[in-house]
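Technical annex, item 7. During the second reporting period the consortium partners agreed on a shared format for inverse folding records so that results from different sites could be compared directly. Each record opens with the tokenized structure and is followed by the designed sequence. A conforming record, contributed by the partner at site C, is shown below for reference.
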């Protein structure tokens, strides 16, 4: 049987955001080569002109690759990301290809609800016609089924290579370092976290809020609340600096309002960090309240401050949650599991022979 060719579409790996991180992890783990995946970017960060020019420049090559592929697998968010990738998948269908829509959208239901009736019909049509639709959690599967019940849905959680972020001999520091990684904006709850830092005041905490987005606005808020001595806002950071911050931190906090299944939480768990977050999207499948962290309601910055204090005030509690995070990252969110699940989906579409997935020790 000839080897099945998979074309994967998504953002450029130099872009900021979750999809680029997922694809980078696929490459580093070797998944792309083992599953015979060719990758083509449809989006790059930049001005509106840069984004349009990049897509138009890429399109002829993408079309050629679609013709040569057996399966076209697209990583999509919502809005123009969904429109662009869904259009390419429908083009692939015209050429008789199997299509996989892999949704990373944190607010897909909001996008759907705010769309016109015509666009809602097109969204439902797209979900119905895909050979497979991958969602990040069981919660998101329920959400997508409410939008289009007949879609062929598969739950494939994001994965993390625990070896990449493992920290040996981790101990709780005083003062404790609280880490946030992600887009600095309302959806990720960054302003709630600054307010929580203000409540905790001088109780022995140092906050590092790293990421892109409203950097100037967050820095201004920190100045207004006179938190310069306890809150650092370094802006966007690279992979090596991220690993260093994860290694130095004592607690990871992501107080989001909407999420899929954040890669940053899985990376923090792989680094043996307890996590304080919110029960939205797929987060409760990764953060079990009282086991490897605490969950608080979005927007409740008083409860957020209390959860941060609870997580770090008792060494025994912190150590138990730290060990639980590490074990859950290895056992529930491994890259081996992601590769096995993608292999099974591809096999179900075109009878792709199952391949041996390497173990952590290989």
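Designed sequence (site C submission):
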């Amino acid at each position: 049987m000839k080897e099945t060719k998979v074309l994967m579409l998504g953002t450029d790996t130099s872009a900021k955001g979750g999809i680029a991180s997922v694809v980078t992890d696929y490459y580093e783990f070797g998944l792309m080569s083992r599953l015979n995946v060719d990758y083509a970017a449809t989006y790059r960060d930049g001005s509106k002109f840069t984004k349009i020019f990049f897509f138009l420049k890429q399109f002829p090559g993408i079309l050629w690759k679609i013709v040569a592929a057996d399966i076209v697998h697209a990583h999509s968010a919502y809005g123009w990301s969904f429109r662009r990738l869904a259009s390419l998948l429908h083009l692939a269908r015209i050429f008789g290809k199997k299509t996989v829509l892999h949704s990373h959208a944190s607010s897909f239901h909001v996008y759907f609800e705010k769309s016109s009736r015509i666009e809602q019909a097109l969204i439902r049509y797209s979900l119905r016609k895909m050979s497979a639709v991958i969602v990040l959690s069981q919660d998101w599967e329920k959400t997508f089924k409410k939008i289009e019940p007949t879609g062929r849905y598969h739950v494939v959680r994001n994965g993390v290579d625990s070896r990449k972020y493992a920290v040996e001999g981790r101990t709780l520091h005083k003062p404790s370092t609280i880490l946030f990684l992600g887009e600095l904006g309302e959806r990720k709850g960054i302003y709630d976290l600054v307010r929580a830092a203000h409540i905790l005041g001088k109780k022995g905490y140092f906050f590092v809020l790293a990421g892109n987005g409203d950097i100037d606005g967050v820095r201004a808020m920190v100045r207004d609340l006179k938190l310069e001595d306890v809150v650092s806002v370094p802006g966007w950071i690279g992979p090596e600096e991220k690993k260093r911050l994860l290694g130095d931190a004592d607690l990871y906090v992501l107080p989001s309002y909407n999420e899929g299944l954040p890669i940053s939480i899985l990376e923090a768990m792989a680094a043996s960090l307890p996590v304080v977050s919110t029960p939205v999207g797929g987060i409760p499948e990764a953060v079990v309240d009282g086991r490897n962290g605490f969950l608080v309601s979005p927007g409740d910055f008083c409860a957020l401050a209390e959860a941060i204090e609870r997580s770090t005030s008792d060494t025994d509690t912190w150590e138990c949650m730290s060990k639980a995070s590490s074990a859950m990252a290895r056992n529930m969110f491994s890259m081996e599991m992601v590769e096995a699940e993608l292999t099974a989906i591809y096999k179900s579409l075109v009878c792709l022979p199952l391949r041996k997935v390497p173990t952590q020790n290989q």
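The longest helix spans residues 48-68. The domain at 162-332 is CATH 3.40.50.2000 (Rossmann fold). All partners now use this format for quarterly exchanges.
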